[in-house]
Amino acid sequence: MTLLLAGLLLFLGSHLTRVVANDWRTSARERVGPGAWKTIYSVIAIAGLVLIVQGYGLARQAPIEVWSPPAWTRHLAALLMALAFILLAAAFVPGTHIKARVGHPMTMSVKVWAFAHLLSNGRLADIVLFGSFLVWAVLVYIAARRRDRVAGIQYPAVAASRDIIAVVVGLAVTVAFAKRLHASWIGVAPFG
User: In whole angstroms, what is the distance from residue 165 CA to residue 96 CA?
Assistant: First the structure.
């Protein structure tokens, strides 16, 4: 669990600097330069991600059950994951009504992903991992929306066809992940 916690601290901590220490982040970035800042930031984030993967893998070898989720939570999680992948796709398709409404669909996607996995997993490592990402995503989303309001930023929608693209891509990725990728990458079949 120590590796998992260290990884979460590095990865999520580095991604929280704009929320909790924006003035420090700005001055540090100016001091070292944007290129060096991105390099340092990337190294810390990648190190954190590696530790998360290793720590989570180790924690799964000796699981501590906190609660046993009912079977229906897996089905609800599957529906939520479809929404999460649609939101993620909308983050990369410019001019969607989804982005116009949500503002930051990628961060919202992380919130939905984490919540879905909290519902359907009851082991301590799962609660720590997905709970941390959920708290992080909530904080980042609130801060991003606040920055948008202060700066008067709006995300205009171009056409409904953009939303259709996001929905189709999101659903296709959902199916691919549920049928193949989750089992091969994570080692757990969502419905197996």
Answer: 9
